[in-house]
Amino acid sequence: MSDSITRRHFIGSTAASTAAVGLGFSSLKALAESSPNEKVVVGVMGLSRGSALAAGFAKLPNVEVKYLCDVDQDRIPALTKRIEETSGKAPEGITDFRRILDDKSVDALVCAAPNHWHAPATILGCAAGKHVYVEKPCSHNPHEGELMVAAARKHNRAVQMGSQRRSGDGWQEAIQKLHEGAIGRIYLVRSWYTNARGTIGTGKVVDVPANLDYDLWQGPAPRRPYLDNVVHYNWHWRWHWGNGELGNNGVHTLDVARWGLNVDFPTRVTSSGGRYHWQDDQETPDTHTVCFEFSDKRQITWEGLSCNKHRAGFVTFFGDGGTMEIDSNGSYVQYDEGDKLVAEGKGPNRGDDEHLANFVAAIRNDKPLDLNAEIEKGHRSTMLCHLGNIAQRTGVTLTCDPSNGHIIGNDAAMALWAREYESGWEPQV
Questions:
Q1: 88 CB-near residues (< 8 Å, 6+ apart)
Q2: Which domains does the chain have, with CATH numbers?
Q3: How far apart are CA 211 and CA 209, in angstroms?
Q4: pTM (2 decimals)?
Q5: Using one digit for the tens of pLDDT, what is the confidence trace for 252-297?
Q6: Strands 298-305, 287-294: parallel, antiparallel or unpaired by DSSP?
Q7: Which among 31, 50, 237 has a CA at the least distance from the CA of 134?
Q8: Strand pairing partners for 227?
Q9: Which of 12, 60, 84, 219 has a CA-to-CA distance to 389 between 20 and 30 Å?
């Protein structure tokens, strides 16, 4: 599936997005396209990031948020009230997402649970006939991403990854200019992410809180004792459940980099870094540099500093005819070969609302591939994160098959291609 933007698609998307910005959120009816009277019913799983997604879906015309699901029952009441105030109807609060799958009136599962849940929930959702909006990164390991694409194709379901910048009009305008040759042949993309995260400390085994279904929180992951510094966020920094900063926020920048460079899988991946700032339980790097080499002498680099927020970054494209910088909201500046400013554009937002509307439109129009971040695109971008992490964990340069990203001639690296599952939770397509 190509990442290029056709002129027809760009003009249509931009026109709709511009209308939405100018007229207010009610004009998202235009973004949700035809048949707004055909109600789309969703259930949201995971109410951290899922709270924003539920609120976004609730504002779309004739979209019902029927279920709010979280294994921590304390997270449900406040969001239920918020959604009721927005939509006029209170969703049902549940702790087991399988209730959503069993309800034939539900059109779509929204999965914003931890990363180890993304693929298993998506695959089960597709098998149950649900369309799926799944947060980034779309998978916990490369094999899962391949299974997700296969599940979407087998069941003909719309599966959208939450890389919302693909739906932002500023981003689409900038990428369109790059694809049309605004800075010539692009040979290098630099991407980066910074934050000022504190230490996660040293966890202690304690009793599971009464409000938490820890067994279901673990779900497909093999069982571990409950630690007091993992749930609800610091699982990101443990390989058993998360993918580090590269999978957490790096996937956003790498998705834009890959989109603009119009590449799929790399030929070589090198990586360095580690836990440099704090000494604690975190297993994933807080300082991380990755280089992805592609055919035809093209390259993407990513730098992640989780504990030093010197500057907010995002993506810079370097071509033989100039340079383009794009910030996190889609505003861009373009320079010529002499580094003279020649063009700029203002991106009003990250594209969150437009991304949800794009997903709803694909469902209503029965066009499961008509998605800005269709799962095959999401898998390819997430694959860069997995390969970067595997290179860092093994300490070797990876040679990859550019047709599918598979690692060549390195059994130790390929051992990280998939994972073991808790018995009964193995994803199958």
A1: none
A2: 7-166+353-374 (3.40.50.720), 169-202+225-350+379-414 (3.30.360.10)
A3: 5
A4: 0.92
A5: 999 999 999 999 999 999 999 999 999 999 999 999 999 999 999 9
A6: antiparallel
A7: 50
A8: 205
A9: 219
